[in-house]
Specification:
Length: 445
Amino acid sequence: MNILIAGAGPTGLTLGIELARRGIAVRVIDKATEYFEGSRGDGLQPRTLEVFEDLGVLDEVFAQGRAVPLLKIHVGGKFAGERRMADPVEPTPDIPYPNGWMIGQSRTERILRDKLAEYGVSVELGTAITGFTQSADAVTAELSTGESLRVDYLVGADGGRSFVRKHLGIPFEGTTDESIRMLLGDVAADGLDHEYGYWFGSQDNPMEGIVMTPLAGGDQFQFGTPIEGDTSLEGLQALVDKYAGPGTAKLRDLTWSTVWRPNVRLAAKFRVGRVFIAGDAAHVHPPTGGQGFNTGVQDAYNLAWKLADGREEVLATYETERRTNAKRVLGISEELMQKHVDGDESALDRGENTRQLDISYRDPADHRPLAPGDRAPDAPVTDAEGNKIRLFELLRGPHETLLRFSPTTPAAHPHTVDITSPEAFAIYHAQPGDEILIRPDGYLA
Ligand SMILES: Cc1cc2nc3c(=O)[nH]c(=O)nc-3n(C[C@H](O)[C@H](O)[C@H](O)COP(=O)(O)OP(=O)(O)OC[C@H]3O[C@@H](n4cnc5c(N)ncnc54)[C@H](O)[C@@H]3O)c2cc1C
């Protein structure tokens, strides 16, 4: 089997690793001639951390990132208190990584590219997809380099303006809100303590202001504001002087800045025949709630094993599962966006539903506490040598896993975990003799 992935953002890279580690011939191309260096999606959600553990990149992500910082709130230039976007939560046996993690997108992408390279796959820069046709058994793609290639599947992970989506004629339904603009940039700030995040709100409307989030690995902050301004260093400095008070912070080393319009759009289809779309190509989000990056990673993780499987009934579930989820996530980020616009302070809190741990593909009519389609929770288990370890360590890898609770027969499935720990029984709501199959992407089959 061979697969072409158009786009080497987080979605394309995750998919590339997932396919390459299954021994599938994969090429990852990107139109850009150099890697993007902005921080953009800098918040990883707990579910993404679980996926990254499976992909073998979590240690590096932890080494290069940082915990969600405490935010020092200033109103009218005066310190008004401290708060967190989310209160830190202790890990539990079923949720090993309950808290988000901050790391600039360009760093995460570099980590993913390094992992992909371990499987012998390098991103082909300066290589755009410019056309394709498909038949019942193959896709023929045209590249900007003049090459034409025939593959089993094509995946468009080519971002919000996706060529692949447009070429398929799939409508991108939703809105671009012209009334809201976000000015964003990566910049260092002398005078601010890099251990903290900052909110500089105006005296008249404390919800109107600038957020500065420290970026791990250096001294920059991600600067963000819905206030009109220009993207130069002087432009950002003028806003900081106005909202934080002159002399509070001297900005320098602006390496990236942009004005960004919140888009809320969902593709009408995620697939036509042998061509799939994933990530921003399939759905775009406002930045509120930090879902865009994370949802793209989950798309890729859901799609990879299905492409490897290749059966039509399995492939068909990609769109049903992930489009339904994208719709739900768009609702969450849109609601948070509206709260920001309305000046509702609760918009600063990131609730349970942004962690993506509650993603489920279950039948809504199934009301059991744990049902097919739910995330497989972590649990304490014992490995073949009798060592106490975490179930997630045994789930690692591209295979599905059969959990057997106090079994009495020899194992027949090549990846079987026999469970005796009472804690794991409780987490899985299991009875002796139960068997639960876990999909390669960590959901109950
Ligand atoms: C300013 C900004 C702030 C953001 N903040 C957050 C945040 O806080 N949290 C969060 O979760 N998300 C955030 N996001 C969203 C996040 O950056 C995206 O959701 C994420 O990058 C999507 O990943 P992707 O791989 O699907 O697409 P992209 O990262 O857009 O990657 C697509 C790739 O495809 C390439 N490409 C395009 N056309 C072609 C072609 N024809 N052929 C080959 N390659 C092509 C592009 O060069 C690009 O490298 C933000 C986005 C922006 C712009």
